[in-house]
Write a structure and sequence with these properties.
Blueprint: E1 2-6, H1 12-15, E2 16-20, E3 30-39, H2 42-49, E4 66-69, E5 75-78, E6 90-94, E7 99-100, H3 107-111, H4 114-127, E8 135-139, H5 144-155, E9 159-164, H6 167-176, E10 180-183, H7 189-196, E11 202-207, H8 212-220, E12 221-229, H9 242-248, E13 251-254, H10 260-263, H11 265-280, E14 288-292, H12 297-306, E15 312-316
Parallel strand pairs: 8-9, 8-11, 9-10, 11-12, 12-13, 14-15
Antiparallel strand pairs: 1-2, 3-4, 3-6, 3-15, 4-5, 5-7
Amino acid sequence: MQAWQVHENGEPGEVMRLADVAPPTPGEGQVLLRVRAAAVNFPDALLCRGQYQVRPPLPFTPGVEVCAETEDGRRVIATPVLPHGGFAEYTLAHTAALLPAPEALDDARAAALHIGYQTGWFGLHRRARLEAGETLLVHAAAGGVGSAAVQLGKAAGATVIGVVGGPEKAAVARELGCDLVIDRKSEDVITVVKEATGGRGADVIYDPVGGTAYTQSTKVVAFEGRIVVVGFASGTIPSAALNHALVKNYAVLGLHWGLYTTKNPELVQHCHEQLTELAARGAISPLVSERVPLDRAAAAVQKVADGTSTGRIAVVMEEAA
């Protein structure tokens, strides 16, 4: 089979190599899957760089989110078991963790539903307890993780403010349904949010960026607001000033979705059922901006690493396209 492999850490476009290798052999509790589509995630870039919290042995195949087919013909979504990731014709997954692919979504969108939307659902509903009528601010609203949070926020009845970088991404955020879009490259985020909310600020802030975005969040979070820390796509991990959280009466909530897969798998299943229902009635649909063949996977991961993509890029297998 064909699979992308990383033999040394570095930039995805430089260290990912397409090779002919033997299909992986399932271990105990694992299943072999034929990949139909694999969504590109920022963690794939971090894996290549050796900067992710999980460091598989070299060589490994990146690709942490797939829509695939079991040997008995079931269409499923899964997070592959590293080092046998999803940028390959076949991958491995834990049998108990397989989820049925929603019928309402094609392979590319189904592949992009799992991590980003589960993260959004857990962040907004489990951690922040977002309520209808509240104001939600989403950083990187046109990205893969941010776009999921925007759709989930709108589905929950929130007023959604999206922060993006550039006019092209602003147009995407508007199409996603943001009630207000702020271009951080040409507008002052703090000023615009305060003006739009009458000085009150945002009740919930969803931050997959870190760095300057987190600093802005602390200045525009409402009384009893909640900042959900999802990731650090900016490359800068901020230090929370707890005295500031105390005097402004807001909460800083961490979210590592992967922990739920082992600590509370039943809740992951419940979340998937909720997402499947939302997809069935058209309330959510992963924003897949590009579909590329397997031989262009390295370039796709590099594009996500560079922060120049919008929504999700999906690697789609020709026979499943």
